[in-house]
Amino acid sequence: xxxxxxxxxxxxxxxxxxxxxxxxxxxxxxxxxxxxxxxxxxxxxxxxxxxxxxxxxxxxxxxxxxxxxxxxxxxxxxxxxxxxxxxxxxxxxxxxxxxxxxxxxxxxxxxxxxxxxxxxxxxx
Length: 124
Fold this sequence. Notes:
By secondary structure, the chain is mostly beta strands. It has a single domain (9-107), classed as Beta-clip-like, CATH 2.170.270. Helices cover 0% and strands 40% of the residues. It contains no helices and 9 strands. Strands 4-5-3-8-7 form a 5-stranded antiparallel β-sheet, with no helix packed on it. Strand 7 (81-87) and strand 8 form a beta hairpin. It is globular.
């Protein structure tokens, strides 16, 4: 699997959210926005650290930090992007619908783009 910086997106500041991922140009539905490696670690090793805000569950007692832009996508219940595990320790981010230039690219942290399970934080 080849990893390279995505030509499709860039990082921008988002009022009330910190940073987010935005479309550099029009992204057609089904486009693989990026494929990224993940670093897997023990969940307890991240407690109380700045990394805790950027990791996601990866098994029973482990979490993963997605490299590339992977850990910077913001959550939305109306996500325009989904993520899939595509290798032993890698993820792909794929456009769920057409995404306009300048639009924030979001994922549903619950995994499924349509999952409305309440998050442990206030969704903005």
